[in-house]
């Protein structure tokens, strides 16, 4: 099974590397359309974009079977997934439960983002995934290159401003990107699930333990540049963290907090898709946020900071730069141990705008994407928020 994955990834990386055109002809080997969206009867097209730093990303455009694609598209909306996930996460439950399908059913022109390093967006014009340079990025690059490029691509194609939906790391990326006027001016409104800009109140026991034990430095010492939970090294490392030290029987809860509403009997199936890989540098950047309580660029240490940024400390992302005129909506949960309520409150205090808020006491970090009742609990409200922004149009 493992050799197959490697073969597939290698094949895709090579095919990406030799095709430098903006849009690849044919479809990538890992196709989200083919995996989850066509089988549900929805129309789906694969798009390929290239970031300014050379990564090849897949975007999918999804429409409900009820929609006639030759007719006018509804408002474009981009779905930006979180850490160790990819665009598949918006389509893992049934069409009646999953946000991607639900938005398409409501007539939205749904676009699905997949950041660099995920199995759907695996490729770079020069580097392959075995090169350490391929993994030399953190969430600030996902914001400044990947998200900025996706938004630009959709904006040009749709010729209108877009709606942005982010979950978890997708919200970190959104906040960082929206501090840039060139990105903010292409966004009509943003809906953020488990919004994160500060992380110093994280109380997830396993995450705290990993930070305390400097897991990020351990993996660097092992010579790893990629975090891939399907690799033997990582599986062993996590096992050793759990053994004797703490109870990891409920592994997911120990990372994300208790999730009230997702269907446990589907875990095996979810694991066919998640987790996706990310970079060690990204994990280090996230751990820096937890340790320092800052929302800033990657900290290289005194000397390299001066060389890279011209300052001894990495520059901060200032939430105050996000235009007050940009409407925002946020959904957050009382059981979420990653997007902690205290950190969310600090984010709110620093934003110039007053976002609309949906607080769900019993919701954990994963519930916002996989709860079987999220349609009623969450998505319905998000769609109302979007509709209110577009009430003047015929849609
Ligand atoms: C879609 O709409 C076009 C133009 O109105 C029409 O010619 C075509 O037959 C429609 N296709 C379907 C599948 O309904
Ligand atoms: C949970 O998932 C299983 C397998 O997909 C399904 O048979 C069952 O009906 C689901 N239960 C609920 C409450 O949605």
TrEMBL record:
<feature type="active site" description="Nucleophile">
    <location>
        <position position="168"/>
    </location>
</feature>
<feature type="active site" description="Charge relay system">
    <location>
        <position position="336"/>
    </location>
</feature>
<keyword id="KW-0732">Signal</keyword>
<dbReference type="InterPro" id="IPR029058">
    <property type="entry name" value="AB_hydrolase_fold"/>
</dbReference>
<feature type="domain" description="Partial AB-hydrolase lipase">
    <location>
        <begin position="34"/>
        <end position="92"/>
    </location>
</feature>
<feature type="active site" description="Charge relay system">
    <location>
        <position position="365"/>
    </location>
</feature>
<protein>
    <recommendedName>
        <fullName>Lipase</fullName>
    </recommendedName>
</protein>
<keyword id="KW-0442">Lipid degradation</keyword>
<comment type="similarity">
    <text>Belongs to the AB hydrolase superfamily. Lipase family.</text>
</comment>
<dbReference type="Pfam" id="PF04083">
    <property type="entry name" value="Abhydro_lipase"/>
</dbReference>
<feature type="signal peptide">
    <location>
        <begin position="1"/>
        <end position="19"/>
    </location>
</feature>
<dbReference type="InterPro" id="IPR006693">
    <property type="entry name" value="AB_hydrolase_lipase"/>
</dbReference>
<keyword id="KW-0378">Hydrolase</keyword>
<dbReference type="InterPro" id="IPR025483">
    <property type="entry name" value="Lipase_euk"/>
</dbReference>
<dbReference type="GO" id="GO:0016042">
    <property type="term" value="P:lipid catabolic process"/>
</dbReference>
<dbReference type="GO" id="GO:0016788">
    <property type="term" value="F:hydrolase activity, acting on ester bonds"/>
</dbReference>
<keyword id="KW-0443">Lipid metabolism</keyword>
<keyword id="KW-0325">Glycoprotein</keyword>
